[in-house]
Design brief:
mainly beta; 14 strands; 2 domains
């Protein structure tokens, strides 16, 4: 029993290894991605047939965000290349994966519901919201009964599909994901009530 517990603890700790992504330009459209640990040792080189875009800075992290070929959206992987979750795209119609704000990053499930993970790559608020902002001072605005509202008419499906999200109800949650208020309020009403601000405002 004790041995099993120790093995589980070791596996859990080892799975949370910090690393950074080294990007090597090849002079073509292809880039080589290498995961390096805090001692500068190479953990693994990623298969460039799988990954096409890296959204990572040069810091040591518990997960990295990539565009993965044959997979929609953005994929977060750990040091062992395990897929942890899909990262929410913040700007509809262009590549813009979410990032950590107040130690939380928005994630999405297969039904496009949104939740949050922390800096260690652990899901802390399971995806269940139609719309949710990033956190500001431990509060985030949520929306219910939401739909996509296109910015302009698009002649073809291959055109850029920019759109906003319009919701019939708005409210907010605390940093545990508990709904504090929801109802027939506008986004602006809730924003003013809780003093929410956009990141970097």
């Amino acid at each position: 029993m004790a041995i099993t517990f120790l093995l589980l603890f070791w596996n859990c700790s080892y799975g949370q290894k910090k690393f950074r992504v080294e990007v090597k330009e090849t002079g073509t459209w292809r880039e080589i991605y290498t995961l390096v640990d805090e001692e500068g040792k190479i953990i693994r080189q990623l298969d460039t047939a799988k990954y096409y875009l890296s959204f990572n800075n040069d810091q040591y992290v518990y997960f990295a965000v990539f565009g993965k070929k044959g997979s929609s959206g953005w994929t977060a992987i750990d040091a062992h290349e395990n897929e942890l979750f899909k990262v929410y795209n913040t700007s509809q119609g262009e590549p813009s994966p979410d990032y950590l704000i107040e130690n939380k990053i928005r994630i999405v499930d297969e039904n496009a519901k949104i939740g949050f993970a922390n800096e260690r790559g652990e899901t802390i608020i399971h995806p269940r919201f139609d719309m949710v902002t990033s956190f500001y001072k431990n509060k985030a605005i949520i929306g219910q009964l939401c739909k996509e509202v296109p910015w302009d008419e698009h002649a073809k499906e291959t055109d850029c599909q920019h759109y906003s999200i319009g919701c019939e109800k708005h409210g907010y949650i605390n940093n545990k994901g508990i709904v504090i208020k929801i109802g027939a309020y506008s986004f602006d009403q809730i924003m003013k009530e809780i003093g929410w601000k956009m990141p970097d405002d």
